Amino acid sequence: MHPDRSTTWTPSPGGSPEQPRQVRRILKLFKPYGGRLAIVGLLVGASSLVSVATPFLLKEILDVAIPQGRTGLLSLLALGMILSAVVTSVFGVLQTLISTTVGQRVMHDLRTAVYGRLQRMSLAFFTRTRTGEVQSRIANDIGGMQATVTSTVTSLVSNLTSVVATVVAMVALDWRLTVVSLLLLPLFVWISRRVGNERKKIATERQKQMAAMAATVTESLSVSGILLGRTMGRADSLTRSFEKESESLVGLEVKSNMAGRWRMAVITIVMAAMPAVIYWTAGMALQLGGPSISIGTLVAFVSLQQGLFRPTVSLLSTGVQLQTSLALFQRIFEYLDLPIDITEPDDPVRLDRIKGEIRFEDVEFHYDDKSGSILQGIDITVPAGGSLAVVGPTGAGKSTLGHLVPRLYDVTGGRVTLDGVDVRDLDFDTLARAVGVVSQETYLFHASVADNLRFAKPDATDEELYTAAKAAQIHDHIASLPDGYDTVVGERGHRFSGGEKQRLAIARTILRDPPVLILDEATSALDTRTEHAVQEAIDALSANRTTLTIAHRLSTVRGADQIVVLDSGRTVERGTHEELLESDGRYAALVRRDARLESTR
Predict the structure, then answer these.
(1) What local confidence, expressed as pLDDT, does residue 574 receive?
(2) Which residues are bridge partners to 549 per DSSP?
(3) How far is the CA of 330 from the CAs of 60, 173, 200, 321, 326, in angstroms?
(4) Helix (H, G, I), strand (E, B) or coil at 167
(5) Of 27, 51, 52, nearest to 37 (Cα)?
């Protein structure tokens, strides 16, 4: 008994998971690189301790070495300050190298995980999701996290260590001045959190707008999009539409960069003014009879306080950046959490020798609970090496029936079997080897003819390419091209005609040599002459294979062993061409319609 695997996915309406859980999930991304991060932590700690030592060396120079004229001690202390700077710089370079490497590995893991997840999604997901949206998640969202992943974590640890070490050193010098220096710190933390929350909301909105703009670019600037826009006279309209989306992004970018900028500027001003406050506090304490503070201690303290300024502001800015990045992580996690509705079983069946018998047993299918049934009660058997043609009006469910065999969709009732095994129980490799699909929408990569053919069989020899192309009746045309099989086909194969692309697709399938063949409207978009050439290639491809042909033009199915007529997802007629003509039902009416259309051409 197989569960209903037709569950669909829609993103949550702006609701993000609880922040602590999301942060824990982000930290898990770094878990495989714990050893390297530990080294970074040691370098950060050592660098912070070395840099904090410099003010104490300065205090000794001002309070002891110079007043007492101890030139040897002065030289030693000065050398210590120089070495401190050298060691800090070297440690900084090393920690940047390691942390950047770790960050880029995490980025690689994220990109690969999202791409791998999407590769496992059913066809239904891609029919309801814009291509540009998918590309934006991988490129813009993950790219937008680059600074956070590669440097923010290290910056957070480094700045936090520096702040702690500096505060401890300040207390060691004078705890009263330390209290004065840190009075406003809680206010600064509160301000930075407010700014972070504000930027996070804007970042979510901005990424959605970027995804919408990317989708517009992908759709309208493809070869098909350009052809449609030009021939429909909509180029200016598309430009105005893009301009409007880009204008919206401008506003969001400005809001993102200016969010909390004035509040953070106040923090910067206050932190920069703190040395004056320290000098004033020390002077007033001395005038009021308080304890005196040596010049060396005061200069060293102000040096530490200034040293505290940079990591504190950076720490607050990092907090804001982390808040903003949570919006990007949330969008990526949404894709990583997509339910996989077509999965391989825990203990899949592998068929070493595939005969090719296909059975549809009481098959039902619907896309989701809200839509009606696309297929109902389909019972069909196609013997190994036999041929089945499926015909019927548009929307009858013909293509959907063909998609169930290679598991582009899963049935919602009944089952589809290959050699008696439910296709849902087969391993993906067996199913991929068993079933080849040639559809009306031929897809070719922007690569050479040879590369497109070898997509079916990467280790194919040149001779195998030629044999497949000859069988598909496309070899002579390829050979006549200036670059032969090295000719680049262009975006989506637009350098070739429809019939040529179809024959390339057929050659690609011949090269793969599947025992079961699904032909989905493979010649419906071709003219009669081209259809004849392609049909001869299809006949060569179909020989000795189990063939399921979904056809619009009935001239291509007359020789099928069995013809099934679908209407509204149900089988209304079945038989051979002659039997169905004799019964004078739906099929006969479709044949007469085709004859009338042919006579008007």
Answers:
(1) 92
(2) 389, 519
(3) 52, 45, 11, 14, 6
(4) helix
(5) 27
Question: Residue 29 in contact with residue 325, Cβ under 8 Å?
Answer: no
Element (H, E) at 575: strand 570-575
Which among 588, 560, 548 has a CA at the least distance from the CA of 398? 548
**Tokens at residue 487, please?**
């000719």
The answer to whether residues 473 and 537 touch, using CB atoms and an 8 Å cutoff, is yes
Helix (H, G, I), strand (E, B) or coil at 448: strand
Tell me how far CA of residue 601 lies from CA of 323, 391, 392, 531, in angstroms: 65, 22, 22, 14
pLDDT digits (tens, 9 = 90+) for 208-258: 777 677 767 766 666 556 555 655 566 677 777 777 777 777 777 777 666
| Contact between 520 and 439 (Cβ < 8 Å) | yes
Q: Is the separation of the CB atoms in 576 and 561 below 8 Å? A: yes
Neighbours of 477 (CB within 10 A): 16
Q: Which two tokens stand for residue 434?
A: 């068993």
Model confidence, pTM:
0.66
Instruction: Name the region of 446 (left: φ>0; alpha: ψ -120 to 50; beta: rest).
Output: beta
Contact between residue 516 and residue 432 where contact means Cβ atoms under 8 Å apart: no
Burial (CB count <10 Å: 0-12, 13-18, 19+), residue 476: exposed
> What pLDDT does residue 71 have?
86
Query: 550 and 401 in contact (C-beta within 8 Å)?
Result: yes
How far is 535 from 529, CA to CA, in rounded Å? 10
pLDDT single digits (tens) 392-445: 888 888 888 999 999 988 999 999 999 999 999 999 888 988 998 888 777 788
The DSSP secondary structure of 177-219, one letter per residue, reads HHHHHHTTHHHHHHHHHHHHHHHHHHHHHHHHHHHHHHHHHHH
Is the Cβ–Cβ distance between 584 and 591 less than 8 Å?
A: no
Cα(315)–Cα(285) distance, rounded to whole angstroms?
31
Bridge partners, 73 (sequence order): none
Q: Are 546 and 383 in contact (CB under 8 A)?
A: yes
What tokens appear for 419 in the block? 């050699």
* Structure-token pair, residue 25: 């999930």
pLDDT at position 200 = 65
- Sorted by sequence, the CB contacts under 8 Å of residue 331 that are 6+ apart come out as 137, 141, 204, 207
421-422: strand order across its sheet:
375-382, 358-365, 413-418, 421-422
2: closest CA among 412, 347, 359, 405? 412
CB of 396 within 8 A of CB of 556? no
User: Which residues of the chain register pLDDT less than 50?
Assistant: 1-17
Measured between alpha carbons, how far is 284 from 538 in angstroms, rounded to an integer? Answer: 97
Strand duo 562-567 + 546-550: pairing:
unpaired
